[in-house]
Specification:
The structure holds 2 protein chains of 2 kinds. Chain A is 0% helix and 53% strand. By secondary structure, chain A is mainly beta. Chain B starts with a strand and ends with a strand. Classes of the chains: A mainly beta, B mainly beta. At the A-B interface, strand 4, strand 5 and strand 10 of A face strand 4, strand 5, strand 9 and strand 10 of B.
């Protein structure tokens, strides 16, 4: 199946710094990618839909100035957590839709963000 | 907005026992998907159901989609320790996005 690569897998940063997370579709083009956030032992909460060449669509309650999304190419979407605070600590995971006939998602391996 | 509810939140069984998780949507779904997430891992696609009343099987796993396309279930027969993980349903109601249920964490005791 298709492969989605996410980097870094883990990051520890100081409060107030910005962190960039990359999500790449390795063997297919993804015009749309999705960013999720997952707290321990909880479900995946959709944060935003990243659209190649246009602005991301954010879910209700997600601060677009806090979580900057850029989808500059058909294989790369980035999520930047700006001025991170301890409450931003979480597991962030990206996904891309199967380019085939099904609507299934391929997920990246996730990024564990810890803000001190 | 659209909500997808999933129960139970957690279940532990003895190896060999059966397991079922249920999913309900507040709205009619165009399709429903099931994912499995192993501890420390990322979700992996299991199956997609599209048709009303559809039933699909994958070895010991049986997936059902309700007639009204608002509910679904995953049943595992004779669980094994390799079945451990969290099972998520995800509903697609439109707008090009999936809404995930809360997940059911399955623990299997040998």
């Amino acid at each position: 199946g298709a492969v989605v690569s996410q980097h870094p897998s883990r990051v520890i940063c100081k409060s107030g710094t910005s962190v960039k997370i990359e999500c790449r579709s390795l063997d297919f083009q993804a015009t749309t990618m999705f960013w999720y956030r997952q707290f321990p032992k909880q479900s995946l909460m959709l944060m935003a839909t990243s659209n190649e060449g246009s602005k991301a669509t954010y879910e209700q309650g997600v601060e677009k100035d806090k979580f900057l999304i850029n989808h500059a190419s058909l294989t790369l979407s980035t999520l930047t957590v700006t001025s991170a605070h301890p409450e931003d600590s979480s597991f962030y995971i990206c996904s891309a839709r199967d380019p085939g006939p099904f609507e299934k998602l391929f997920f990246g391996s996730g990024t564990q963000l810890s803000v001190l | 907005g659209q909500q997808v509810m999933q129960i139970p939140q957690y279940q532990h069984v003895q190896e060999g026992e059966d397991f079922t998780t249920y999913c309900n949507s507040s709205t009619t779904l165009s399709n429903i998907q099931w994912y499995k997430q192993r501890p420390g891992g990322h979700p992996v696609f299991l199956i997609q159901l599209v048709k009303s009343g559809e039933v699909k099987k994958q070895k010991r796993l049986t997936f059902q989609f309700g007639e009204a396309k608002k509910n679904s279930s995953l049943h595992i027969t004779a669980t094994q320790t390799t079945d451990v993980g969290t099972y998520f349903c995800a509903g697609s109601g439109g707008y090009n996005k999936l809404i995930f249920g809360a997940g059911t964490r399955l623990a299997v005791h040998p």
